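> forwarded from #structure-qc
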């Protein structure tokens, strides 16, 4: 019996996502310490070894090869980010040599009929701004506006999809709550909300600048969405929220969902400064109510907001990836169909701007023969397809990531890429998942030999066997 093809909407965008600091590896940024992360990377107490000393995976020297890999994926789009620190050296001071790199990248993409989705900032701040308070200082928001106008001047005619910020919620959580990212504050909630206001102002100013340049350009931001669920509900395998009177586990769940998932979206909608939402989805978080809990990202720190994160394996009998993140594809469906989020968006389109599987290789063969990543992509695309059937206007999917890359505080060990990269020679080799994803994009559809989910009164049941497994 031939496999069934689950077709996606016409003109659906298929792509991969990357970020400048995680792949480019231009030696000047690290050696001259142009950014906050080029300094942070030297801290062994904050960033796991190896780090490749800022070289990442040398995309700067392999850009043409990497674009050819995108073309080989049959992708019609590509999400990348500009390197703010290398381009913007000070007030009204820009580096035109770096402009040429991005101009060449965009030329290569255009020649291959690949639509660019440009992220203006992906976490990393120029040092001259970070040392003066970063996003806590309103000056950074106005510098961001200046940077956006510079990008429009040089690239505006070649880019129509703009992502102002990548995951402002992750930046704030790791930078001001757990302290594992720059600026490294721990449970500094006054600073947290001051930086929040700066990020929001930056988004508003950038949105206005882009719309004034061309009102038809589409502007959004990429939000990390977790599927938050009270531990009692997760333990019962229920997709329904449990009321406060039934379980205190709902307390941290409700607060986290508002703070992490919804708050920045609400603010952008209220300012009428959102054309689309980028959704980055990786996992579910199930919380137990525990006033003495430790921070899940920094166990030496007391957790804020009274939540102890449940262990996916011990508490929920779930599978995880090599980073201990629960594999929970139905959480993507739940996040996309969340009633409050859909009400906020009021019909605005959604793009899945990140979704990926991490493997820490024991040998290169196991990573290249990546059946677990193939299953991950299949099951999450099934969740996206189901959300589309439920009425969510999802217009694109960007797998994270094209290449194995530098993974922030986790260093170089985690491998998310469809393409394996040797960290010493920088040789690229497509994995099996690369060819699997290429076929999906070519067909604008997912071939399924068996039903991996079924619908039962609106509750989604995903098959998490055959290929997805825990790694030790």
């Amino acid at each position: 019996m031939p496999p069934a093809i689950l077709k996606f909407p016409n003109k659906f965008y298929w792509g991969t996502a990357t970020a400048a600091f995680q792949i480019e590896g231009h030696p000047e940024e690290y050696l001259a310490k142009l950014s906050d992360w080029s300094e942070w990377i030297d801290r062994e107490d904050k960033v796991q070894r190896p780090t490749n000393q800022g070289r990442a995976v040398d995309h700067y020297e392999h850009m043409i090869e990497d674009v050819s890999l995108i073309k080989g994926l049959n992708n019609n789009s590509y999400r990348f980010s500009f390197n703010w620190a290398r381009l913007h050296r000070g007030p009204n001071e820009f580096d035109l040599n770096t402009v040429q790199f991005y101009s060449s990248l965009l030329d290569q993409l255009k020649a291959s009929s690949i639509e660019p989705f440009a992220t203006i900032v992906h976490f990393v701040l120029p040092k001259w701004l970070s040392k003066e308070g970063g996003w806590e200082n309103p000056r950074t928001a106005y510098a961001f506006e200046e940077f956006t106008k510079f990008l429009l001047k040089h690239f505006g005619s070649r880019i129509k999809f703009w992502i102002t910020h990548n995951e402002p919620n992750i930046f704030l959580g790791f930078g001001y709550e757990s302290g594992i990212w720059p600026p490294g504050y721990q449970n500094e909630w006054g600073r947290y909300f001051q930086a929040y206001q700066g990020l929001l102002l930056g988004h508003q100013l950038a949105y206005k600048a882009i719309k004034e340049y061309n009102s038809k350009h589409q502007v959004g931001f990429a939000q990390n969405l977790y599927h938050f669920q009270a531990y009692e509900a997760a333990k019962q395998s229920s997709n329904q929220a449990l009321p406060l009177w039934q379980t205190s586990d709902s307390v941290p769940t409700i607060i986290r969902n508002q703070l992490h998932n919804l708050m920045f979206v609400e603010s952008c909608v209220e300012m009428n400064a959102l054309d689309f939402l980028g959704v980055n989805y990786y996992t579910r978080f199930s919380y137990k109510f525990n006033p003495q809990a430790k921070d899940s990202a920094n166990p030496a720190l007391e957790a804020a907001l009274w939540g102890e994160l449940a262990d996916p394996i011990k508490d929920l009998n779930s599978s995880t990836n090599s980073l201990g993140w629960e594999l929970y594809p139905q959480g993507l469906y739940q996040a996309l169909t969340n009633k409050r989020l859909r009400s906020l968006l009021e019909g605005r389109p959604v793009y899945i701007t990140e979704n990926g599987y991490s493997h820490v290789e024991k040998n290169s063969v196991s990573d290249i023969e990546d059946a677990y990543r193939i299953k991950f992509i299949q099951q999450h695309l099934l969740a996206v397809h189901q959300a589309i059937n439920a009425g969510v206007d999802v217009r694109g999917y960007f797998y994270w990531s094209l290449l194995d890359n530098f993974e922030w505080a986790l260093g170089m060990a985690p491998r998310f890429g469809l393409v394996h990269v040797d960290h010493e020679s920088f040789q690229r080799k497509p994995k099996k998942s690369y060819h699997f994803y290429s076929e999906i994009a070519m067909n604008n559809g997912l071939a399924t030999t068996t039903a991996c989910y079924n619908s039962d009164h609106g509750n989604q049941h995903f098959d998490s066997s055959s290929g997805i497994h825990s790694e030790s």
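QC bot note: Residues 450-472 have pLDDT under 50 and may be disordered. The CA atoms of residues 90 and 128 lie 7 Å apart.
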